[in-house]
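Let us work through a complete example step by step.
Step 1: write down the sequence.
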Amino acid sequence: MFGLEKETIMKKNIVDILDQEANFLTASQLKERLGQGSVSKILKSCKEIQSIFNQIYAHDTQKIHLIINQHNGIRLSRETNDFHRFYAYLYTKDISYQIVRALILEGTVPVAKLYVELGVSDSNLRKKIRPINHFLEGLGLHISGTKALFIKGDHKKIRVFLFLFLLGIHQQISYIDWIKSVNRYQQLATQIFDLIEQPQQSIQTNQLAIWIYIFELSVHRHRKIAFTPQEEQVIRLHKIPGKPLFLPDWSEEDWQFFMLFIYHSGIFQVPIPLLPNPQAVYQNFSFIKDWLTLFETTYMPLSEDKRQFAQSKLFQQLVIARFLNFATAAESIAFNAYSYYYFGTLHETSEVHLKEFELFWTRFAMTTSKETLPQKGFNFLLFQALLPLDYFFKEIKLYLLSDLNDLFTLSIKQYILFIFSNKFKLRFVYDLEQSDLVISTIPIRNVDTPMKQPIIFVRSRLFAVDMRQIERALRKLDEALR
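Step 2: predict the structure and record it as tokens.
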């Protein structure tokens, strides 16, 4: 992520893996999960993580501990989900972070100054810059310079990268201790939300304040933004409020791009003000029509609300792609790094969607214009939001055989439906002959009627062993019905 060093990413991944485990893992097991590093290197990283936890959570009532036991292995113990401070500490100690931080603060940084501040030689500095540039290549940007370093590329992209860099690592401006006059940027964010009549939470104010901070730096350094005729055409589709008096040094182009990103990044959850009519605007983009036509003909018609939601989200990514000039797939991936950072590893339910989405995406790529390169990661999240999970499941009809009273029987049914609601499409029937699976709380010796359906014998209190038995039977049936 953002060109951070391998050691930094390894420590983050170690914590993520351990946080999913209730039991101890050995260093060898961690090595297998990580797919990298030696056992000794992993143990060294774990001891460093342990030291960081002890330092930053020392005075908290709710702590995070890393337990390293010579016999049992390594285990994460936590009383809170506040990992932000750990990740921020980890990333800010990374030399890659410190290089980008210097570029944010100064714009152009003498390499001699970096040698002193970072304690590195010229060759080591260039080596550290390489992974950052590898990431930046996806955005069409590059850290360049012999005697002084600067980010080379389109100024719109530079602003977006620096914003996503700070937001992805710190989340809020109030967590960035090296930015001066934080209150001023927070106040400007509040004024802008008031201007567009958008209610805001403190977290949104602090996020917008980072975006304002990046613009203020660029304006102060006289970095100009220019629009192509095609971009100006897109701007005219929006009802953007006039540039406020409290931003006297900003150009109209600064303000327009600033607002367009607020509307279309999806980060600030601000409605898109389109003129004269959103539907009329959407109809002008074949990408939107092609996407929705393929989705509805392949899967299901969308309700009017869901259709409008999908149209607005597809339009959002078109505008971002147009203004940031995503020319390659790598650029789309780079822009989505912020989303993937939070999305993390796929859940089991996401894997079901992902398999189907790959088929959808292959078909869509054959129909859409090559001039429009959509962002695959974004489209997967939209696809997942539109297609309900039960679409993938065949209905399994259950029959409950019980000698309990009707209310207790109903309670058992409801519990089973609730536990498996995100894994199977289940329905209890009253006719034994119609069922696919029989669940019985009656001992087998008392069941004298032969059945063609499989039958599961469970205790009426439904212990964990009973639920596992039911799940195995349901999985077998689900695979047979597909």
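Step 3: interpret the result. DSSP finds 21 helices and nine strands in the chain.
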